[in-house]
Amino acid sequence: MSTQTTASNSPVVLITGALTGIGRATAIAFAQEGARVVVSGRRDAEGQALATELRTLGAEAEFIQADVRHEEEVRQLVDHTVERFGRLDVAVNNAGTEGQPGPIVDQTAETYAATFDTNVLGVLLSLKHELRVMAGQKSGSIVNISSTFGRIGAPGASVYVASKHAVEGLTKSAALEGAPYGVRVNVVAPGPVETGMLNRFAGSEEVKAFLVDQIPLKRVGRPEEIAAAVVFVASAKASFISGESIAVNGGKSAL
Ligand SMILES: NC(=O)c1ccc[n+]([C@@H]2O[C@H](COP(=O)([O-])OP(=O)(O)OC[C@H]3O[C@@H](n4cnc5c(N)ncnc54)[C@H](OP(=O)(O)O)[C@@H]3O)[C@@H](O)[C@H]2O)c1
Fold first, then answer.
1. Does residue 60 form part of some domain?
2. CA angle 103, 109, 115 (to 5 degrees)
3. Total tally of structural domains belonging to the chain
4. How many other CB atoms are there within 10 angstroms of residue 105's CB atom?
5. Which residues have C-beta atoms less than 6 Å from ligand 1?
6. Contact 55, 27 (CB under 8 A)
7. In a domain, 199, yes or no
8. Is residue 184, in this structure, part of any structural domain at all?
9. What pLDDT does 6 receive?
10. What is the pLDDT of residue 9?
11. Which of 128, 193, 204, 230 is in the most buried spot, having the most CB atoms within 10 Å?
């Protein structure tokens, strides 16, 4: 594993929900690319530990605590990032929750809010403050993490499915609003990935095996495989891609 020392002109990358799973793998991938990385999440001790780990890879890294459901925390997350590093080049809106899966007849206003407050309001607030800075800079790239369930329905997961469809819609509109300022906004849409969320979602090895059986490559993804797609979409190599949703799902889109 190569390490690099970050320079003052290295891209500044902000990742929400960065302390576990896909967010954590994405933070490590950007650090290995030589970026300056701000990791954000709700748990201070884990966040500080991740920032320390990123520094051992040679990256300049900070942890800033924020719950994406609360606008003042999101505003401060973005503003402190800019105060610390002078700019914001890439934002990865990854924080998400599976909520409380179950049939529609069991859903309530509370289960709806518990999912939508993080997955939809959290992305909206993040976009609002990231675009505020990036429009001023006249540059930037935002990657929202959706899901295969941002494109198709799933019995027993209606609220999560609806929230990820909303992320796809927010992304298209944000891409159009960002375009005049040279800001790109895209989605990376993972299929099942080996993280705590997948294990909570599946609930048992039997359900997980069923999910794997639906995937042409006959395995779940690794967080690093999603991170690699995020790094690409965020980078100048994808400079003509905006308003797009990139599926990373082991061939499931081909079914
Ligand atoms: N794993 C999959 O199969 C899969 C498939 C498609 C899409 N996704 C999406 O990928 C993203 C990352 O999920 P993951 O699989 O890596 O699961 P994960 O390990 O559970 O990661 C989710 C992260 O989001 C954080 N988070 C949740 N609510 C938050 C809030 N209100 N404010 C700030 N942070 C919050 C969590 O922190 P706490 O510990 O504080 O809750 C956690 O670190 C999510 O958007 C998810 O919907 C995952």
1. yes
2. 70
3. 1
4. 5
5. 16-17, 19-23, 41-43, 67-69, 94-97, 118, 122, 145, 147, 190, 192-193, 195-198
6. no
7. no
8. yes
9. 65
10. 85
11. 230
